[in-house]
Amino acid sequence: MVSRDVESDTEAVLPADVPVRMPNLPYRRAITALEQVKAINDPTRSRILGIIQNQPATAKQISKALNMPPGTVGYHLQVLESAGLAQIVARRLIRGIVATYYTRTARIFQYDLPPEVAGQFSATMEIMMHARNELADALADYGEGMFGREGFPHARLSPERAAYYQQKMDELMKEMIQETPDQSGDVYGFFAAFFQSPRYMQQVDSAASAEDANLEITHPDDAHPERHDA
């Protein structure tokens, strides 16, 4: 829901010399409808949501950043606005033309779909795909030498320690998303996933079954002792 101060901004047209400031967005908004899923899953709309997450922007500004026609961006903004994911925060008079500025409706979106809506949809995989696409765009812009860190460690943990790391990750993400935007700084992405590794990586039962004990693994050459390759 749009806050009262945001609504007041949309009623008046700001003069050109008044800057459009980023409103204080809610920390989190739930994605609960299939319409919202379809809106956010489009790669172009995902990029638009990334742009307006930290700064208000017009369709023309977004089109320049994405190198696409303003009309196309305007259509995607309408889809996002209808789905409750984007909102108008200001209108500003620039050289006789009223420019409309958009932001997201929350700093982050959280999938919270009912089972009958979710079906086979995996929110986890969708988030990972968005992160992968954004990382690919960043690598195309800056190359492998860009500022950043990455890693994929594994550790065998007790349930208590697993819960500890889950909490630490949640706290770190919340701390970053609640940072006061530095208008002179750069935008950084932070993707993290803490999950139980697949079954093939889990410990094999050390107590071998009777069937396993009767198996003898041999080298292929051992079955033919007369064969010797130089």
Map the helices and strands:
Blueprint: H1 4-11, E1 13-14, E2 28-31, H2 34-41, H3 43-51, H4 59-66, H5 70-82, E3 86-94, E4 97-104, E5 108-111, H6 115-118, H7 123-142, H8 159-177, H9 210-213
Parallel strand pairs: 1-3, 2-5
Antiparallel strand pairs: 3-4
Helix pairs in contact: 4-5
Description:
The chain is of the alpha/beta class and 230 residues long. It contains 9 helices and 5 strands. The chain has helices at 4-11, 34-41, 43-51, 59-66, 70-82, 115-118, 123-142, 159-177, 210-213, and strands at 13-14, 28-31, 86-94, 97-104, 108-111. It is elongated, with a radius of gyration of 26 Å.
Give a quick precis of the structure.
40% of the residues lie in helices and 12% in strands. The chain is an alpha/beta fold and 230 residues long.
Keywords:
elongated; single chain; disordered C terminus; 3-stranded mixed beta sheet; disordered N terminus; alpha/beta; two-stranded parallel ribbon; 40% helix; 230 residues
Provide the succession of SSEs. Answer: HEEHHHHEEEHHHH
N- and C-termini, Cα separation: 77 Å
Strand content: 5-15%
Rg is: 26 Å
Q: Identify low-pLDDT runs.
A: 1-10, 222-230
